[in-house]
UniProtKB/TrEMBL annotation, chain A:
Transmembrane segments: 58-81, 93-110, 140-164, 176-200, 206-225, 237-260, 272-293
Coiled-coil segments: none
Cellular component annotations (GO), alphabetically ordered: plasma membrane
Organism expressing this protein natively: Streptomyces morookaense (Streptoverticillium morookaense)
Protein name: ABC transporter permease subunit
Pfam families, sorted: ABC2_membrane_2 (PF12679)
GO MF entry, a single one: ABC-type transporter activity
Sorted UniProt keywords: Membrane, Transmembrane, Transmembrane helix
From TrEMBL, chain B:
Record's keyword terms, sorted: ATP-binding, Nucleotide-binding, Transport
Name of the protein this chain belongs to: ABC transporter ATP-binding protein
Organism per entry: Streptomyces morookaense (Streptoverticillium morookaense)
Family: Belongs to the ABC transporter superfamily.
Residue stretches making up the ABC transporter domain: 2-232
Length: 302, 335
């Protein structure tokens, strides 16, 4: 759509040449949905440091590389040793590299929301056509997309490699699709949790620490208790304990529904029945994050 | 432009606005009130960000309660507080804000370049804003409010934190927003003095109620006076006294300013307050001073003390509230 900025000097004085005057704008105003998309793309680009200083590109790009390199190595090994299947499942990849995903989230979620709170840019956004809901949706969607790009890129590498190595097409496509669903759920869940934690504080440092703490402490606690349960032969409880940390929640869902192999101790993953509970908890966590963010910005906007 | 009708906003503990009814037309309008008088609350209601407890308000003929988004598309807002992320340049920031207002990408870039030039930011607009002076930051804040060519801008304390020169620049810029850009302005301040130079119309609120709404010329007519201070010379040892006599002889009303308050530094009885009868008063004063061969230290339009406005007002209890901030009044007069 071409901008229709017309030159209309307020003072049409022919002897004034140094001042071209104020030009009013008569072109399109694309409204709320466009503003929301603009905020989404700016936040998504910001998550990878695009449109920001060179310094802020380093960490996200480095993490992106770290995320993809193992996939490239796996592919190389599979192609050159002529394996008949990939040495790891698509669904397992994000679980192995959860620390990288956690670091990315811890660095970028505060970048996305704490900055706006700290520098009080939020009221400026709300003085634009967008509403609070639009702000939350745009930030949530941008963080989810950023995480999805991070987690899906290595899966694409694996899939491309698998096809190059002429592995069974149907098998690989099914595994790849399951992997994509799994990382999509993971992105939603992590983005929600990360943003809620980061939006609590205008201090970026606190945000980073808090996100890391939430992810590692919950995972550590769940893993430890599961280990104890395994040693005391309480295998029944292992599959339920996974509900209490984000990454084990994803593990449980994909074990139950996406034919993944669980990484729970002793392989005691949830069955389909428990899997439904896992899925419900996951969806509740995503919806809850959205609700908390909306509530948070009811106050922060003013 | 703006019309409110018994608009009230109550918070659990305080009443920010109490049945406020004002009608604000095109042009530059000043909204004056002490800190906590309800200025910022009114702006938030006008932007449709905060619902009024009762009453209604319209901006550009649109109801704030139901058509907030449409209002915000055509209105610019410059907040009182700092709102600029330090790690991006003014250009990037204003472009982003233009897009947030609904401008397509190309138009957003063009308008940003134009607007930043109009507010007086040139090469420095490519640098991160963290290194800007307060004056430059205020200009960026103004630019982001103007970038989408609104019909009306709401400026919340735009001169906050600026030195006298920066303050004058900003006020001049605000004047131009209306005269050159054709955009109506609602500007808040707790200093009446600086607004009377800039605004066509001044609305004074206190404690959420309307104290006064009138055109600026009404304010000036009430107590137009000129402060004059002169030196003594060998020929005329009591310069002030001689001038007072000369001016009185010329038919002007003259009285010495008190030894306290704004002219305390000059010493008691050294400043004369001359009532301005018209343009020729300035000439009369000049000629009288020159005729006596004295040095003219000061000849200035006296800034109104806000209290004076209320002295003529029929709500004497309000004067007390203003008296609580004597420091602010002092600084207006100095500026």
């Amino acid at each position: 759509m071409p901008p229709e900025t017309t030159a209309a000097p307020v003072h049409p004085a022919p002897d004034v040449i140094h001042n071209i005057g104020y030009r009013s704008y008569g072109g399109a105003r694309l409204g709320r949905a466009y503003a929301r998309r603009s905020l989404y793309s700016q936040s998504l680009r910001g998550a990878y440091g695009l449109g920001r200083s060179a310094k802020s590109k380093i960490l996200p790009m480095l993490l992106f590389a770290v995320m993809c390199v193992p996939a490239a190595i796996v592919v190389a090994v599979a192609v050159f040793t002529k394996m008949n299947h990939l040495p790891l499942e698509y669904t397992r990849y994000a679980i192995y590299l959860q620390a990288v995903i956690g670091l990315f989230l811890a660095a970028q979620a505060p970048q996305s929301v704490s900055r706006d709170l700290r520098f009080k840019t939020v009221p400026l956004y709300f003085s634009r056509p967008i509403e609070r809901v639009d702000y939350v949706v745009a930030k949530f969607a941008a963080m989810t997309t950023a995480l999805f790009v991070l987690t899906a890129a290595p899966l694409v590498t694996l899939y491309a490699g698998a096809l190059l190595a002429k592995l069974d097409f149907v098998d690989q496509t099914k595994g790849f699709a399951q992997g994509l669903v799994s990382v999509a759920l993971l992105s939603l869940l992590f983005a929600g949790l990360g943003l809620v934690v980061a939006a609590l504080t205008p201090r970026r440092g606190f945000g980073v620490a808090a996100v890391i703490a939430v992810l590692t402490i919950s995972y550590g606690a769940v893993g430890t208790i599961q280990g104890i349960a395994l040693n005391t032969d309480n295998t029944q409880i292992i599959s339920w304990l996974g509900l209490f940390s984000p990454i084990t929640l994803i593990d449980g869902v994909q074990t139950a529904f996406l034919s993944a192999t669980t990484s729970f101790p002793g392989g005691h993953g949830p069955g389909t029945g428990a899997g439904v509970v896992y899925l419900l908890v996951l969806l509740a966590a995503v919806a809850g994050s959205y609700g908390l963010l909306t509530a948070r910005y009811r106050k922060a906007g003013l | 432009m703006i019309a409110t009708e018994s608009l009230s906003k109550r918070f659990p503990r305080v009443t920010a606005l109490d049945r406020l009814s004002v009608d604000i037309g095109p042009g530059v309008t000043g909204l004056v009130g002490a800190n906590g008088a309800g200025k910022s609350t009114l702006i938030k209601i006008l932007l449709g960000l905060s619902p009024a407890t009762e009453g209604r308000a319209e901006v550009l003929g649109l109801d704030v309660a139901t058509r907030g988004a449409e209002i915000r598309e055509q209105v610019g807002y410059m907040p009182e507080h700092d709102c600029l992320p330090p790690d991006v340049s003014a250009t990037e920031f204003v472009v982003h804000m233009a897009r947030m207002s609904g401008l397509p990408p190309t138009a957003a870039r063009e308008r940003t370049a134009d607007t930043l030039r109009h507010v007086g930011l040139y090469e420095e607009r490519y640098r991160p804003m963290g290194g800007y002076s307060t004056g430059m930051k205020q200009r960026v804040k103004l630019a982001q409010a103007l970038v989408h060519d609104p019909k009306l801008v709401l400026l919340d304390e735009p001169t906050n934190g600026l030195d006298p020169v920066g303050r004058d620049d900003m006020l001049g810029l605000i004047r131009r927003v209306h005269t050159d850009f054709g955009i109506s302005v609602l500007v808040t301040s707790h200093l009446l003095g600086e607004l009377e130079r800039t605004c066509d119309h001044v609305v004074v609120i206190d404690g959420g109620t309307l104290l006064r709404s009138s055109s600026t010329s009404d304010f000036t007519r009430d107590s137009g006076s000129l402060a004059v201070e002169v030196t003594d010379s060998d020929a005329v040892p009591d310069g002030t006294g001689a001038l007072a006599a000369a001016l009185a002889a010329a038919g002007l009303t003259v009285q010495p300013a008190g030894g306290t308050g704004e002219y305390a530094a000059a010493g008691p009885g050294h400043v004369l307050l001359v009532d301005v009868a018209g343009e020729e008063t300035y000439d009369t004063v000049r000629d009288a001073v020159a005729g006596l061969g004295l040095g003219l230290v000061r000849m200035e339009q006296r800034r109104h003390r806000i209290a004076e406005v209320f002295r003529t007002d029929e709500q004497p209890q309000q004067t007390h509230a203003w008296g609580a901030a004597p420091q602010e009044r002092g600084s207006t007069d100095a500026a």
